[in-house]
Each structure stands twice: as C-alpha cells, then as structure tokens.
Amino acid sequence: MPGLDASPAIAVVGATGAVGAELLALLESRGFPARSVRLFASARSVGKAVRVIGRDVAVEPLVPGCFEGTDLAFFAANAGTSREWAPQAVRSGAWVVDKSSAFRMDPACALVIPEVNGGELDALRSPAIVAVPNCSTIIALMAASPLHREAGVARMVVSTYQAASGAGAAAMEELAQQARDWAAGRPLDTRIFGRQCLFNVFSHNSAVGDDGQNDEERKLVDETRRIWRDASVQVSATCVRVPVLRAHSESINLAFRRPITEARAREVLAAAPGLRVVDDRAANRFPEPIEASGRDEVLVGRIRADLSQPEGMGLSLFVSGDQVRKGAALNGIQIAEHLLKSVPR
Hints:
It is a single chain. By secondary structure, the chain is of the alpha/beta class. It folds into two domains: 9-133 and 328-342, 3-Layer(aba) Sandwich (Rossmann fold); 136-323, Dihydrodipicolinate Reductase, domain 2 (2-Layer Sandwich), CATH 3.30.360.10. It has nine helices and 15 strands. Strands 3-4-2-1-5-6-8-7 form an eight-stranded mixed β-sheet, with helices on both faces. The protein has a seven-stranded mixed β-sheet with strand order 10-11-9-12-15-14-13. The chain starts with 8 loop residues before the first strand and ends with a helix.
C-alpha cells in the first residue's frame, strides 16, 4: 500500500497567488523536508521563475500526466481547478491538500483543522484528498472548539469582519489603490468588489441563495457541523467585508449544553494550541487584525459572560486570525506535516 516519503517530491498548484506565495514562504520558514518542488499556475504565469526553498523554480502548465512522480500536491487555486486536477494527482499516486471549496463536504475527503480534528488524518493509509476548511470556519473553530470540548456548544452565532485578502492578491491591491486614489482625489477603481471597499462595510461578495444566506455563511454552518461531527449544533452566521488588508476578525457568541465559568473558559483558551489570548480590559487591548497579520496564532479576547443567558451557559468572544496564513496556507502545511508523521512508509 503506498505510503508517504519522509522527504516528498511536492507540487504547488496556484503557486503565484496570494495563498500560494504564502505557502511557499512557509515551506521554507518551517523547514519542510521537500525533496523537490514543482510549481503550477495559470497560463499567464507559465515560465515565471519563483524562488522557493533556496532554488529558482519555473512555473509549469497543468497538463495530463504532470503529477507523475509527485508524492504530495498542495492546491491553492480555485474550486474548478481542484475538481479537475486534484483527482488526477491522486490517481498519479500523490496525496493532495486542497484549500478550495471543491471537496469540503465530500464524505470521501477529510475536512481538517489539525488543532481541532487532526485525528481524522490518522486513519488515512493511501493517497487521498484532504480538504482545508473555509478561512472563516478555521478562525472561528480555533477558538470555539476548545470550549465545545469542555462544555458542549449548543448554538454559535458568528458575525465576521473579513479582510480583502480573502478575495486574493488583486483585491488587496484594489483596496490599497483606493486609499492612494482617495488621497489624491482620483476616482476609485472598483473592478474586484464592484463597489468601494475603502471606508465601507458590505455583505460578503459571494452568491446569495433563495434563503438569504450567502455562500460564506453557508460554509460556516455546514463545515462546523461536519468538523465537530454534530449535526444538532445550531449555527447562525453573518459575513461581511471590511476595509482591512489582511486578517479576518469574528464576533462569536456561544450557548453551552453544560455550564462553564468565565475563569475556566480563560484557562481552556490559554492552554489551547494555536491560540493566543489578548484580553486586557484595563488597557482596552483585544484582538485586532493588524496584530494578527503575519502570525501563526489566532488571537482571542473580549472573553465575557453572555448576560442574556443563564449564568455559566453563554460566552461572547472576539477573534482575529490571518486569513492567508492560518486560514489557508499554514493549515494546509500543518495537514501535510501531520501526514508525514502518521502515514506508514
């Protein structure tokens, strides 16, 4: 039965996008033990030389058979690309870590946040697709899951404040250009979001269904239930874009099945991997996206009792996490690192 080499030959699909670039930087900074690296991207990037793990690598096109000899493939492209090419990579013998939405609700594919349900990976024994959850889901569940294990979350209400980074490098540049153009008195370019992002807040730029939920809100509901393996948990989400370059923030309200004190919640959150408590009431210092940007940890604070619920049965939190990093690239690399340890050779 195929295993996974301790020093795998890897491929990165979508290598020149915002998440792909972050992933390449993390491979180097974390000392990922890649034997070789191949890079794939859209036609406009083919032939471009990209520096990765101390070497210049030319970007290649995706063509039939291109994953032969690859042990591990990271997909940092759109869902359509993943649907077409990820199964081909698996058939070529590669393990796939996919950050798109293509396979998140596929029961044949694990949906994993390593700090939350990394044990899902331990049962895998042959090449498969492992899905990275949506960035908003990752950031919310990094904080909510330790409390769920402790007291059982019955209901979670989430309001997101999502940065331009969630829409890619071009959206980040559009926001930055809007700031420059506004300062210079020039008209603002709105091609990416279709509206002014600077000095504005608007509903998440994903399709809205007949039920009034946009795609981002639906992902938070469905993915939370799947990751927690609890279809009974009630989740309500409102997702909006804010004029922040990088790092999403979320207001989270939790109702519990069992009582938990605020003091115990602080102990649980302080001990949880991948979290950093930022909660200084005296100085009014709490999680901020500018402080979360570039960090591996998700920042959690504003930890307080929900006074609308019986004592000990509800808490409110505020979190900030780097969408490009923990919300996408880092989570994918952590999945791969886990696989390197858990898959027999």
